Amino acid sequence: MIEFASEYDAQPFHLDEEAGRNSILGGLAASGWMTCAVTMRMIFDDFLKDSVSMGSPGITSVQWRRPVLAGDTLSGLVEILDARRSASKPGMGIVNFRITLTNQKAEVVMVQENPIMFACREAAA
Asked: For the chain, is the Cβ count within 10 Å smaller at the N or the C terminus?
């Protein structure tokens, strides 16, 4: 966490345990951007590595609901919100996902929604 923060988000509560305790976060806390990166790794390991993913046009929304503190164990739930075939690229489908990340206390720490593009099995007629 500290190494990531040192490189990408060098705010005191991400770098120093005492500064974290003295902040509204209540302890040494991961950068929200690190939480997004960890979530991406979890998504990749869970299903993207064995898929026909064609990337993503971006993140629709991300909400950091609670701080991710040093020592937390994270798990995630991936929900499919909707899926459709691309109107302009019939060989591509777009699936909108909601990813909910929780800590070891089952507290929601982050909710992210984003589309991912996948190759379709066959092109639309």
From this structure: C
Secondary element (H or E) of residue 115 = strand 108-119
Domains defined along the chain, listed by start: 32-119 (3.10.129.10)
pLDDT tens readout for residues 16-41? 999 999 999 999 999 999 999 999 99
CA distance 40 to 77: 13
Residue 106: which H helix or E strand, with range? none
Q: Residue 109: what are its φ and ψ, rounded to 5°? A: -105, -25
Q: Which amino acid is at 114?
A: N
Question: Model confidence over 89-115: pLDDT tens digits?
Answer: 989 999 999 999 999 999 999 999 999
Given a contact cutoff of 8 angstroms between Cβ atoms, the answer to whether 108 and 102 are in contact is yes
